[in-house]
Each structure stands twice: as C-alpha cells, then as structure tokens.
Design goal:
Radius of gyration: 16 Å
CATH superfamily: NAD(P)-binding Rossmann-like Domain
Structural class: alpha/beta
Distance between the termini: 37 Å
Bound molecules: NADP nicotinamide-adenine-dinucleotide phosphate
Shape: globular
Length: about 180
Amino acid sequence: MNYLPDVTSSASIQSVVLHTATNHDFLDVLISNAGITSLAQPLLSQLHETFETNTFGPAVLIEAMAGLLQKSREARVIFVSSELGSIGKRVDRNYMFGAIDAMVSKAALNMLAVCFAKSSESWETPAKIWCYDPGLVKNREKLGARSSEAGGQGLVPIVEGQRDCDTRKLVNDSGTLLW
Ligand SMILES: NC(=O)c1ccc[n+]([C@@H]2O[C@H](COP(=O)([O-])OP(=O)(O)OC[C@H]3O[C@@H](n4cnc5c(N)ncnc54)[C@H](OP(=O)(O)O)[C@@H]3O)[C@@H](O)[C@H]2O)c1
C-alpha cells in the first residue's frame, strides 16, 4: 500500500486515513509537504491546477485526519509553505517576485493553517500548527539552493517540540516571517 496520498484525490486520502486509523489509535504529527507550480495558461487554469495540490489537497487531508489528530495528546501539524506566500513580504517593493500561482496558493494555505488551529480549539488538546518555509531547495540550484534533505531538517526541531513558542506562525530555520 502507498502511504503517501495523492492529495488531489479524495479516494487516495481516504484510503490512507483508513489505513492509519486501522493501525493506530491517534496521530501525533502530520506534515503536509506536497507543493507544485504550474505553467498552465490562462491564469485561471494555472491557479486551478496549483490550488488543487497546494491548498485544496492539504484542506481535504487535514479534515480527513482531524479525528485521529484530536485523539493525540499533543498533535502537531506542519504545513510546508513558502515565503512566497507572505503578503507582508510581497508589499515590499524590493522583494523578489515569484510565480503568482505559488504566491497565491501558499498565502491561502497559510490562512487555512490558522483557521484549522482555531477550529481545533474546541478539542480537549488543541493542535499546534506551523507554516514552514524550507527556503530555496534543490530544484533552484542555480540560485544557491540547498538540498531537499537540508530543507527537511528544519522540520525536526518543530516535530521535537523545540519550536513550540512559534506555533501559529510562518517560520523558517532562522525565525519567523511576516504573514
Ligand atoms: N523548492 C523550493 O525552493 C521551495 C521553496 C519554498 C517552499 N517549497 C515547498 O516545499 C515543498 C516541497 O517542494 P520541493 O521544492 O521539494 O518540490 P519537489 O521536489 O517538486 O517535490 C514536490 C513534492 O510534492 C509531492 N507532490 C506533488 N504533487 C502531489 C500530490 N498531488 N499529492 C501528493 N504529493 C504531491 C511530490 O511527490 P512525488 O515525488 O511523489 O511527485 C514531491 O514529494 C512544497 O510544498 C514547496 O512549495 C519549496
């Protein structure tokens, strides 16, 4: 069985949730990493394609996993986002320009994360959430990117509880970023 769902497929997500629920009583950590950019044209098609993976997929996944997360004594949910989703950065005229579908879908993902954190306040133990920017990783080597492994390492302290002071924030390895 493939434990990694295709987040654009509700059936695939449901299959993974069913498997997880069959084998485990609760879920402590959920990392939503899937992310793409699209070259589709026109813009509406590009946004549709990217939102399916970057935003709608994580929304369906988190909703489907909520029951198992709620049973954890300390649920942690990490949404792998991007600095490109920071509206605060975007209004800075000197800030780099990224692909519009990435920027818009990650900004929406950030809001989704905060909304999920808010909704989990009704749980006995609310979920801790973070939006995490791994920085430039492997597919941007020409810009001095680091490896995927190095980018993923930043998730470890979050999972281990060393960044609980930064919950409900957009974070990178150095600190926190503007929403
Ligand atoms: N690259 C950067 O510089 C950068 C910067 C900031 C943020 N990020 C974010 O970091 C995350 C990882 O990006 P990356 O650069 O490592 O990209 P990548 O090498 O292209 O990897 C994308 C990942 O998303 C998965 N994925 C794509 N579509 C999916 C779907 N429908 N369902 C489930 N998984 C799917 C891929 O799985 P498969 O391998 O199975 O296709 C792959 O593991 C993304 O959320 C991205 O937005 C990247």
